[in-house]
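yo, SRPBCC domain-containing protein is done. seq:
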Amino acid sequence: MTDLRLEREFPVSPEKLFDWVSSPGKLLKWWGSEGMLLSAYNLDLSRTGPWFSVLKNDEGQQYKMSGHVTHVDPPKSVGFTWGWHDPEDNRGAESHVTFTVVATATGSRLLIDHRDLGDDEISTNHERGWSSALRKLSAHLN
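structure:
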């Protein structure tokens, strides 16, 4: 299994960053890669329980993912499972994501650990997706 770890610094308090990565109103502003629109969702990482989102690209292709929020420890971390759905809405292999927020001298750092991704190609695709989403988050916080 392949794991992915990304880190980004933000000039905001850990509490504010945690709010942006867990509460639905803010999460919806940056979730998904650039150029993708959320067409359906139940996306609340501020509480344990199920979540899902459907992203749609310019050509009308839809990509559904879902999982279960496994832990919420404000303002430190939130963890959730992740699985892509196929066109028939069958959920595929499950991976695990943890957002960890750490205080820094100038604000806070977000660590994204995405584990059990399967192989290097899947990891590379997720790295592109998370990096794109983090650019959107950065635009809101910098």
